[in-house]
Amino acid sequence: MALSKDRRIGKHAILLLLSEDSSEHVAMLEQLNWKSCTGKVGAMDTHKVVAAIETAAKKNGVINPDLYRESHALYHAIIEALNGITRGQVQIGSVLRTVGLSFAVLRGNPYENEQEGEWVAVSLYGTIGAPVKGSEHETIGLGINHI
């Protein structure tokens, strides 16, 4: 059950998110038979961030919207990534904070043994702060869950 060095799903999710030109990275991920999508969301409500990421993953075929276990795995990866963004307190608007985030969702098998199955990773990067222009700072988060 060894994690493959060149198939680390969290690392690839972060690289995909931060790459200036993601097309080359996406092509490499497709060779691994991995699925991915990227997007942006800005909100003062946590549920809007979750909804934007879930919608993008479903519309881009990263997860099957008809299988609860896939939506459930994605949800937990999103919440884990939000924990990083919000420093462990998954609250935004209720504590007068707003976020402007880019996200990447990646699905694949990071193990040498294919029988280990697929995992989903969610990476978030952007700003968080008071809802006043110029009162924000950078933030990053990563969540990984098995499907």
Q: Uncertain spans, ≥5 residues at pLDDT below 50? A: none
* CATH topology description: Hut operon positive regulatory protein HutP
Number of domains: 1
CATH class term: Alpha Beta
Overall 3D form: globular
Helix share bin: 25-40%
Distance between the termini: 16 Å
From the alpha-carbon coordinates, what is the Rg to the nearest angstrom?
15 Å
Number of strands: 4
Largest sheet: 4 strands, antiparallel
Overall pLDDT: 91
Look at the structure and name the CATH superfamily: Hut operon regulatory protein HutP
**Range of strand content:** 25-35%
> Architecture, CATH level 2?
3-Layer(aba) Sandwich
Q: What series of H and E elements makes up the topology?
A: HHEHHEEE
Strand order of the largest sheet: 1-2-3-4
Determine the structural class based on helices, strands and strand pairing.
alpha+beta
The helix count comes to 4
General description of the model:
- With 147 residues, the chain is α+β, with helices and mostly antiparallel strands.
- It has 4 helices and 4 strands, in the order H-H-E-H-H-E-E-E.
- It has one domain (5-146): Hut operon positive regulatory protein HutP, CATH 3.40.1510.
- The chain has helices at 9-18, 23-31, 46-59, 68-85, and strands at 35-43, 98-108, 119-129, 136-146.
- The radius of gyration is 15 Å and the shape is globular.
- The model has no long low-confidence stretch (mean pLDDT 91).
- Keywords: Activator, Histidine metabolism, RNA-binding, Transcription, Transcription regulation.
